[in-house]
Amino acid sequence: MFSKINILRMRFRSILLTGFLGIGLSLILPSCDSSSDNKKDEPVETQSKGNIKISVDESLMPVIGQQLNVFDSSYPEGHIHPTYTTEQQCFTDLFKDSARLIVVTRELTKAEKEAFDKNNIRINSRSIAKDAIAVIVHPNSVDSFMTLGQLKQILIGKFARKYTIVVPSASSSAMRYVLDSLIPGQQLSKETFAINNSDSLIDYVSRNEHAIGLIGVTHVYDPESTIPEGSFKKQIQVVSLKDENDTTVNDFYQPYQAWIALKQYPLTRTMYFITRDAYNGLGSGFANFLTSQQGQLIFNKARLVPLRVPLNLRPAEIKQ
Q1: What angle do CA 227, 217, 270 make, to 5 degrees?
Q2: Are residues 126 and 60 in the same domain?
Q3: How many whole angstroms separate alpha carbon 95 and alpha carbon 91?
Q4: Residue 77 and residue 189 in one domain
Q5: Are strands 211-216 and 164-167 parallel, antiparallel or unpaired?
Q6: Do 196 and 283 fall into the same domain?
Q7: Which residues contact 179 (CB under 8 A, 6 or more apart)?
Q8: Which of 40, 74, 177, 178 has a C-alpha 20 to 30 A away from that of 106?
Q9: Does residue 318 sit in helix, strand or coil?
Q10: Position 319 in a domain
Q11: What angle do CA 39, 40, 45 make, to 5 degrees?
């Protein structure tokens, strides 16, 4: 069901960079087809018509699935085929042209930009929404409130109570966030495991009292909830966090939309689209949709923070 990880931050980043640049060295760009007859037979692609593949960070699957459902119903001649995979694989797919567009939670690194430039691949990227990493524990766990310091102690295996740490994948955005933002330069606990996907992670934590999971926030919301601010799935507890070093934060916060928008929940991140569409193709059409009022409303309804339209916050009482 899951594989064990014992990994240092520098080793993880070295593997990621080596693998990406290795692709760059072995890439063979397709030659131009001079046959005008072949071009005449090709279907015309527009921003609302065509057939393309995209790759999406698996932690964003619920909300991007909603975006694609609305886009497909609005533009029935536009056929977008998503692959939900690891963050690392998304960037590999974009570079190899296995995906016209990717949706991820980081921008290209300097080395990645140089590899694209070296191969004359033009890209376009834009931030589209804010989401968060949710920390989840078993419903019976006594640690439903934590400071960031306590969470970091758990991650490096030095907390008073022992935890099994689970992430969706060794090359997931959650793992990168842990290594780059939470425990940079430190060794991750030996009791860290990679699980097949986010749904399997939630199931594992719900059945193991000494497990703690890190997962994209869109996976922990209850899709059946009718409460305006949303509610979390009942089979797990979503941990309330506090950054003890932030003097502007006076309480513990869960990853609700308002606390993400106000930057009071500490584990937030930015969502981006990155596309290699250099013309008005379907990839550009979907990218434009994500930044349109309709696409931004879908992010808002998914209880994320849209970045391309104003967000109005209203007082509300959250009942647990």
Answers
A1: 120
A2: yes
A3: 6
A4: no
A5: parallel
A6: no
A7: 7, 9, 12, 13, 188
A8: 74
A9: coil
A10: no
A11: 75
Block residue for tokens 């869960």: 254
* Token pair listed for 44: 């015309």
CA distance 107 to 91: 10
For residue 309, the model assigns a pLDDT of: 86
Instruction: Give dist(CA 218, CA 197) in Å, integer.
Output: 13
Q: What is the mean pLDDT of residues 273-300?
A: 93
The residue type of 91 is: F
Rounded to two decimals, what is the model's pTM? 0.85
Query: Domain of 229?
Result: 131-268
pLDDT for 78-102, tens place per residue?
Answer: 999 999 999 999 999 999 999 999 9
Alpha-carbon torsion (206, 209, 210, 212), positive or negative: positive
- Cβ atoms of residues 54 and 286 within 8 Å: yes
Q: Which two tokens stand for residue 88?
A: 């690392």
Strands 124-137 and 237-238: antiparallel
**CA dist list (Å): 129 to 132, 262, 294:** 10, 14, 13
91 and 147 housed in the same domain: no
**Using H for helix, E for strand and C for coil, what is the string for 14-77?**
HHHHHHHHHHHHHCCCCCCCCCHHHHHHCCCCCCCCEEEEEEEEHHHHHHHHHHHHHHHHHCCC
pLDDT at position 310 is: 76
- 108 contacts: CB under 8 Å, gap ≥ 6: 91, 116, 123, 125, 274
The pLDDT of residue 314 is: 65
Whether the CB-CB separation of 46 and 19 falls below 8 Å is answered with no
